Amino acid sequence: MTAKKQKNAESSCFREFFLDQIKDIYWAEKHLIKGMKKMRKAATSPSLASAFEKHIAQSEEQVKRLDRVFELLGKTPHEKKCMAMEGILSEAEEVIADTEKDSYTRDAGLILAAQKAEHYEIASYGTLFEFARMMGEKEIARQLADTLKEEEATDSLLTCLAEDEINEMAVAE
């Protein structure tokens, strides 16, 4: 990155847009933790409940990474309501309300809801990583890349649970 581009990146409206999107994903992570706790409690399959438990712990670490991103930006951590995640979490609550307790159909629906959240996070972290990279923010990019890898791994785990166990059991109910 040239010195001129670096200077522009430090004071641009793009940087403000980047910060705004960090606030958005910060809200999303914090509220997804609450949502995953509900999904874990509603899960029938012990392996699905365990996957939610693991991702809750990861998400708590991801919030700490975002705290670090704010610090690197010289800003106090601040949330901006994420309408997309709010909608996804609302759908997850509908799955719980609309499916039978202790059913694999509920688990299939929980995986669907969780993967919607994961895909939103993958899109967000992937783009934010690229934004940070383009602004020359190497440490911020590294923090975001670490989280992106975890989100992709969680999505893969949920896919495996669906394909290897949950969906077949749900269809058989």
How does this model look, in words?
Helix 2 (13-42) runs antiparallel to helix 3 (46-72), helix 2 packs parallel to helix 4 (83-98) and helix 4 (83-98) packs antiparallel against helix 5. By secondary structure, the protein is mostly helical. Helix content is 86%, strand content 0%. The longest helix has 35 residues, at 138-172. It contains six helices and no strands. It has helices at 3-11, 13-42, 46-72, 83-98, 104-134, 138-172. It is elongated. The protein has a single domain, classed as Ferritin, core subunit, four-helix bundle (Ferritin), CATH 1.20.1260.10. The relative contact order is 0.16.
Question: Can I get a quick summary?
Answer:
This protein has 173 residues and is an all-alpha fold.
Low-pLDDT residue spans? none
The assigned structural class equals mainly alpha
In DSSP terms (H or I, runs of 4 or more residues), the helix count works out at 6
Quantity of strands, as a count? 0
Q: Within the CATH hierarchy, at the fold level, what is the topology?
A: Ferritin
Largest sheet: none
Total individual domains: 1
- Helix and strand run: HHHHHH
Could you name the key traits of this structure?
mainly alpha, Ferritin, 173 residues, elongated
Helix and strand layout, with pairings?
Blueprint: H1 3-11, H2 13-42, H3 46-72, H4 83-98, H5 104-134, H6 138-172
